[in-house]
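Good morning C.,

I know you're traveling, so I'll keep this short. The sequence:
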Amino acid sequence: MAGILVIELLVIYFFFYLPLTSNLTAETAIKLSLESQVKDEKTRKQSGQNIEDAGKTVPVQMNSEAFLSQLDLKAKDNQVRILQISQEQPVKAGDLESLDINLILEGPKDKVIRFLKELDNESRLVRFTSWQIQPHEDNLKIILKLTIYAMP
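The C-alpha cells, ready to paste straight into the viewer:
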C-alpha cells in the first residue's frame, strides 16, 4: 500500500509538478553542461589520453597482447590454470572498438574467485559477457567470455 502511494507521488511530481516549476534557464544550464562534457571527452580523445567510464579506463589503443599478458600473470599469481584462450575479431561501433576474449580456467574455488575479483577490479573496463561454471570437487572450471574496449 505504501509502495503504491510512493509511486503515485512520484508520478504526480514528475508529470505535473516538475514541468510547471522548471524554467528555461535550468534547461539551458543542463544543455550547456552536457555540451561541455562532450567537448571535454572529444578533446581528451584527440589528445591521446585515456577516457574514463564509471571509474574504469577505456584506452586509446586496444593493445590486446598486453592485456593477455596481464591476464596470464594474474592467473599464475592466483594459481589458476588457463586451459584455453582465444580472441575474436575486433568490432567497431562508432568511436568504440570492442574485442571478445574466450577463456577456459581451472583451479581451486577460492583461487578462481580471487582471480575473477582481481579481473573485475582492473582499472581497464572489462565486461564479463558470459560464463559457465563447472564445479569439480574442490576445483572450478569456468568457460568465460570477456569484452575489452578501446576508443581509437
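Safe travels,
E.
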